[in-house]
Structure formats: C-alpha cells, structure tokens
Amino acid sequence: MLGLPELDTIVCKQLRRQDLAQCARVSKKWHAVVIPHLWGDLTYLRSLSHSQKHAFRNMIQEDLRLQGDDHDMEQDILASLSPSSALSNYGTWIQELPSLEDLESILLLPTPAGQDDLVVADELLLHFLKRCSPAVRIACMSTDLNTYLTSDYFRRAIIDFTLPRLHHLHIRVTFQSPHPELSEMMNLLDRCSVILKRLELSVNVEDSGGDDDGHGGEEQTMDEHNDWISLKELTLHSFTVSTDIREFWSWIFRRCGQVEKLEVRRTHGAAQVLTDMLTHMPKLREVALGVQDARTFIDEDPEVGSLRPWNCEESLRSLKVAITKATTEKNRRSFIHWNNSPGLDIQNQVYDRLARLTNLETLWLEGADRPEGLEMSLASGLAKLSGLKSLKQLYVVGSETRIGVKEARWMVENWPRLCVVRGLESNREAARWLRKNHTQISISV
C-alpha cells in the first residue's frame, strides 16, 4: 500500500474488518499487504452473528470436502484440477484464535438429520487447526477431562495442535478413588508449551465407597520436567488434596518456579501442600489463599518448634487470606506443641508469620461471617508487624477487629506509606481519628 511494511501495519491496524476487505479488492499489491491482517487475528469469531457462524462452519466443511476429493485424484493432475477454498488459501496467515470453547460453539451448530453433531464438530475443529499457521496462538482452553476422553478427534485437536500454542489453560476434573484419569491429566499438562502463561485447575476427589488403602489406581511416575518458564498465574478453584494424589500436586508446584500470582479458592485438605506451594514459587508477588485455619497459615514445623520458611517471603507484595480459628477461647490460651514444649498464643504466631513478609504492600484479611479472625490489636500482638514498612493498603473487610485509636496511631507511626484502610465497621472511633488527623489516608467503614 505505502511501500513500507511498518507503515502498512500501522494503517491496517486502524481499519475495520469491512475496510480491510474492501482494500484487499483494490489490486494484487494491496491484496498481498492486507490479507495477513484480515486473516491474522480471528479472535473476533466469538462475536459473530448466527448466520456468520453458519458461513464460517460451512467454509470449513467445504474445505474438508475438497481435501477429501483431492485424495481421490491422480497425483500428476492434482495441481491443475483440484479446486481451492478460502481456508486453504489463507489459513496459514491465521496467528490468533479465540478460546477452544468459542470455536466449538460455532462448529456445534445444527447439522443435517442423522449426523452426530459432536463427532462432526470435533472433526471440523481438528481440520481447521491443521489449516492454521504453525505459529498460531490460542487464547484459552477450558475443558472437563471426562469430555476430553470421549472423542479421539478432540484429543488430537488438544494434544497435537492446542496445547503447544496455548496461553491460558483451565482443566476441570473429578476423580473417584482409584483414579486412572490422573495419568491423562498429567499427560495433558506435560504437553503444554513454554508459552503457557496462566493455568487454572479444578480438581475434586470423591470417595468411590470402596476400600481404599491410600494407593488406589495405577501407580503414577512423577518424572521431573522443566519449568513452565512463561507461567505467571496459577489458580486453584476446587482444590482437593488426598494422600494418594499429594505427590501429583508436588509435581505441579515444582514446575511453577516462575509464577507471580497464586489464587487458591475453595479448598479441602489443602493444608497438606501449603508449604509445597509457597516453597516452590520464589517469585510470587500476589497471593490469595482463600479460607485458612490459623494453624495451617502459621505452618509450623513441629519437630523444631519454629515456622517453616517460605521462599516467597521477600518477593510477596500482596496477601489476601481469611484466617479462622485465631481468636476462639481455646486458642486464646497457650497451647502445647506436639513435642510438648510450651507454645505461644496462636495469634502471636500468626503475627510472626505475617512479620516475615517484609516487602508486603497490600494486606487483605477477609472475615465475612468469620468472627474468629485476627483482632489486629496491640494486646493481641499487632506490634510484631512493625517491620512492614512498605505496607500501603490494609483491608479488614468483614472482620471483627479491635482496632482502636491506639492501634490507629501505632499504624501511622510504623507504616509510613499507609494510604488506604478499609473495613473499620466496628472501629468507628479509629476511623474518625484517622480522618481528622491523617487526611492523606483513604478511610472506609
């Protein structure tokens, strides 16, 4: 168009798809310039109208039919007689695709009576992916492992074409003990390429009702592998840990050395692997741990009577956690460690754990419907957090804290960068004092 690739790219990025289509019809020269931009990014497919989705599906079906016809031709006359489709001509320009689910929704449109929609859709999906550029990038894939196991076409589409090009993967699975699906899940995860940036796992383990000695199912080989070097986000939705798959989680966490954001949502039995998570991710900057029992969060080594070190203690900038069972009458009293040495008050130990996060900038202590969280009072050990000099934001939303004027004054003196305090519903005197004396701090009850 303009004779300079850099300027052509700038111009094409400013044009609507309709305008690009018109430009492609101007001349062969313009056509050659515009086509890579017209076909390069197909993430817009998710917003097609119903009729446009039908047209897209029909294009793939026609290309598949023509390819089948090609196989019936003699090789010496193939080049001169075989027709071509838009997909065969321009598919190699495709660089960006929407999620696999968006593509499936288009390809699952009603088919003629007597045909299996799912089989046809999976075959079309595999054929379409084969036509794309070898360097194509797929935005996201979210799949139920049981669905993945039902179709050979779908398995091939995922293993051979999707996983090596995927940026965001979400796998949902429910195991019954024994659980042979574990090897399938490991196989999927092992096929992910170095460009994977975000991983989400929803893993539940159900009791099958039979006798289980803790070693049901086929024995899994947890071989060492290279890290997912581009993986920056790990989200654990329904996160169940049982004795017989604990090593599986360790296998996952050992590959997450570059993760910077960790989110743990609904959990069951996760206390067993908390240390594994926070030990194998030394670059964590943002962590949301969901609901954690106070003793689980403390993560004490009973053999030596001290807190286990977390490799992310220096890198962590944001922590969001709902700590429970920290202020029950039983826990207010001293308790005895497993080695029968005198223990400290459990709140003091929670403060000890928090105090190790010396570069923390945001501390979010959730407490909705959980009145047994930290008191955040000087009497309960708040002064142990005096080393958090980088702290800017404190959220105690829903927590029944005991923050008074004395605590508010201490926070201002010891946290010089504090600029936001949220959740002082039951601490209105402290809120009024902060508003009156420190207007630079944003206060909300």
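the 2nd protein, sequnce then structure:
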Amino acid sequence: MGTYTKIFLQFPPDQVFWNTSYQFLLYADPHERGYYPVFQSLDGEGFLPGSGIIFVTVVHTQSYVVEAQDEEITKAEVLGVLRSMFGAEKVPEPIGFMYPRWSLEPWAYGSYSNWPPGTTLEMHQNLRANVGRLFFAGEATSAQYFGFLHGAWFEGQAVGNTVAKLIKTDGYIDQVHYQTLHGTTPEQEYNAINGWEVSTFLTYGFE
C-alpha cells in the first residue's frame, strides 16, 4: 500500500492570506525533502470560493510521520511553513483542521494500492478474480489505473455490469485465475481478460 496524506486547514474567510486566483502554492524546505511541499487552495473559482480552505499534501516517509504524530504537532509544523512563506503576522490560527490517517486504518493500512517491483499481470489477475459468487472491485483491482479514483470507478462499473448480467441470465462464470505464475508478463497477456483494455505497445508512428 502507498500512503498519501492531505491535511486540511480552514481559516476565517475574511482573513485569507494567499492569492485565491492560484490553485497551487509550492514550498521547498531548505533542509528536508518533501516537508509540506504542495499546498492547494479550495477557496477559488470552481471549488469552494469564500470557504477559507487550503490543504497541503505529503507522501511516503513524511506521510507516515504525520499520520503517526499528534495532530497539534502537525498543525504547528504546517503553520510554521505557511508563516515562513507569507509572514507570521499574516497567518492567523485556523478555525478548522483535520486530516485522515490511512496508514493506521486496520481495514486499509494505506491510502492506495501500489504494486511492488516484479508484480506481473498474472499476479494481479489472481487478486481480481472472483471466488465463486463473490466479486471484487476497487482501485486495487484495476490493472491500468490502480491507485487512482477512476480505477475504482471503471472496475466498479465493469463488475456491476458482470453481476447484473449473471443475475438476468441466472448464469455463472469463473474469471481467469493462474495456478502457475511466471516471472514476467508475456505481451499476449496484456489483454481485456487480465484487465488491460488498451495496448501498452502502441507507438503512434514513433517506431
């Protein structure tokens, strides 16, 4: 599992200190890589104008640190970064502060699936395959879009259609499950049966 933590702060709408016409605000810490680097404003056109909400994203090591530490420590660190960016006198105390702790959730232990090196389509298909009348769907079962919201959407749609069809026809299927696993994925296995709907090998004329 991978971990990706979004930390949300809400400030009084009349004390917003950043330029709300910008969606992203970047910070490069001089000492520590990945230390609260990317802020995103939700107080802008197309999002939640007038909300006073901004969030910052941390990943990997920083994400695990943040999710394991006390919320007040995280708040102080984030405010420290914002005050170094905009000036201490311009950044008030937030009226709202929250973030999820995906890496500590017993049912998840992370915020998205992440294939380790050496994972093949055969291994992944074994994760996707139904067990009798039990079918699985989510971003983790998407061969092409694992780790992303649209992966969950496409998988849910596909499995829903399969189940609906079986109900209408009183049918039954067993999706492909590999008893013998190989160390690599042959080109011919990049197909719809294994959840691979488009070709990875298209060159678009750039051979």
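The two ends are 35 Å apart (CA to CA). The chain is about 25% helix and 10% strand.
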